[in-house]
Write a structure and sequence with these properties.
Structural class: mainly alpha
Strand content: under 5%
Number of helices: 7
Number of strands: 0
Helix content: over 70%
Radius of gyration: 19 Å
Length: 220
């Protein structure tokens, strides 16, 4: 590896770490806005989404520049390709955090409804998956990445439980229809965030082990 390419890759790694930190913060704030009925915090997440979008473009441009200038091979090429893919997943997590913040803003401005413990669990699980997938990336930790991948089915099952709860509550409390739909939206967006965390974990496995496991069945 040339000195110039090494410097560029080190810079890319720092850019990725900064983006990961921002995305995690926005997700945490969005979830807190739902839990605390905090419309001000929700609005902060929505208004600051441009930060993630800007960083996504910067990272993509940096990756494309390195591919064009240095024609990297082997592990360097895999890292740049992986960074491009993870960059997209991080941006999507940011968008989904905005969706959660939108729902939080609505819920905060309307009469309170009961939040089932299952939704709190799915929030904790999804945030944990994002955090662990980022740790796996930073530390190139394959066992941790596999652990994240095995967690995805748990979140899917939790979301199904929330959906069943919302359907039951709609039949009992038709006057809360809109709020309950927003509650279901929170769960759905958290489930999709878990999917993107799984994507990141699978890309870490590709980066370290050199093979693609996406779409392959998870061993039980």
């Amino acid at each position: 590896m040339s000195v110039h390419l090494k410097r560029e890759i080190d810079n890319l790694k720092q850019m990725m770490i900064a983006q990961c930190s921002t995305v995690e913060e926005h997700l945490w704030q969005a979830v807190k806005a739902v839990e605390n009925r905090d419309s001000t915090l929700a609005r902060q997440v929505i208004d600051r989404d441009f930060e993630i979008d800007r960083k996504e473009v910067d990272i993509e441009e940096e990756c494309l520049k390195m591919l064009a200038l240095y024609q990297p091979v082997a592990i360097d090429l895999r890292y740049i390709i992986t960074a491009l893919k993870i960059n997209n997943d991080l941006e999507r997590i940011g968008d989904l955090a905005v969706n959660i913040a939108d729902a939080a803003e609505y819920l905060a401005d309307h009469p309170p409804i009961e939040i089932p413990p299952t939704l709190e669990t799915i929030a904790e699980r999804s945030q944990s998956m994002v955090h662990l997938s980022i740790d796996a990336l930073v530390n190139l930790d394959c066992p941790l990445a596999y652990r994240v991948r095995h967690s995805d089915d748990i979140v899917d099952n939790l979301h199904e439980q929330v959906a069943e709860y919302v359907q039951t509550q709609i039949r009992r409390h038709l006057d809360q229809l809109e709020s309950l739909i927003h509650l279901l939206s929170v769960s759905r967006n958290l489930e999709r965030i878990a999917d993107h965390a799984t994507n990141i974990a699978e890309d870490v496995i590709y980066l370290v082990e050199g093979h693609i496991i996406r779409h392959k069945k998870v061993d039980t």
